[in-house]
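FAQ

Q: What does a record look like?
A: Structure on top, sequence underneath. For example:
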C-alpha cells in the first residue's frame, strides 16, 4: 500500500504542486480512506519527505544505470537529462520551488543529497571527457561540477525562468547546450551538434 501511495502522491505533487495537493485529494485519488492514508504516513510533511526520498532514489538508480554503460560523456549527459525529465514529468508545477518555500527542511536535505550525487557523477563525466578529448584539458573539474549544479538549480527559479515562458525540458536542454559549448573541444562540439540534430 505504501508504494501505491508514494506513486500516486508523486504524480499529484509533480502535476499540481506540494502545497496545492491535500491529503483528502490523495486519499480520493487512491480510492482509500483518509484514515488508511494516515496509518501509513502520520501527516502531509511525512508523506512529502517519503515521496521526495522515493523519487530521489528512483532517479539515482536510473542515473547509475546510465553511468554504468560508460557512454561517451556528452551522450551520457543527454541520456541523464532525458531520464530525469521522464521521472519529473517536465515539472509542470515547479515542485522544487514549492518544496523550498513551504517545506524548507525537506528541501535543504534533498539539495544536499543531490549535490553529493551530482558532484560525483559530473566530476567522473568531466574527467572522462578530458581523457577522451571531448572536453578541454585545462578545465577545473571541481569548479565546473559545482557551477553545473548551481546552474541546474538556478534554471528552476520561477522568478527568473517562469514556466509560462519556458518548459523545464526546454530549460534543461538550453542549459546543457550552454554548459557543453563552454567546455568542449572541437571534437566535443561535433558530438554535441550530432546530439542536437
Amino acid at each position: 500500500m505504501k508504494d501505491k501511495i508514494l506513486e500516486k502522491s508523486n504524480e499529484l505533487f509533480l502535476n499540481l504542486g506540494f502545497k496545492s495537493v491535500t491529503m483528502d485529494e490523495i486519499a480520493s485519488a487512491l480510492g482509500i480512506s483518509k484514515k488508511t492514508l494516515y496509518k501509513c504516513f502520520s501527516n502531509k510533511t511525512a508523506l512529502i519527505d517519503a515521496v521526495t526520498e522515493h523519487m530521489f532514489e528512483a532517479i539515482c538508480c536510473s542515473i547509475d544505470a546510465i553511468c554504468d554503460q560508460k557512454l561517451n560523456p556528452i551522450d551520457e549527459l543527454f541520456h541523464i537529462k532525458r531520464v530525469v525529465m521522464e521521472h519529473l514529468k517536465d515539472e509542470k508545477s515547479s515542485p522544487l520551488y514549492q518544496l523550498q518555500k513551504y517545506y524548507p527542511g525537506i528541501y535543504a536535505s534533498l539539495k544536499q543529497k543531490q549535490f553529493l550525487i551530482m558532484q560525483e557523477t559530473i566530476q567522473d563525466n568531466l574527467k572522462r571527457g578530458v581523457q577522451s578529448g571531448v572536453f578541454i584539458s585545462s578545465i577545473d573539474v571541481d569548479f565546473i561540477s559545482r557551477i553545473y549544479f548551481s546552474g541546474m538549480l538556478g534554471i528552476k527559479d520561477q522568478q527568473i525562468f517562469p514556466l509560462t515562458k519556458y518548459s523545464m525540458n526546454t530549460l534543461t536542454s538550453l542549459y546543457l547546450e550552454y554548459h557543453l559549448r563552454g567546455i568542449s573541444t572541437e571534437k566535443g562540439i561535433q558530438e554535441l551538434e550530432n546530439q542536437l540534430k
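Q: Is there anything notable about this one?
A: The chain has a mean pLDDT of 93.
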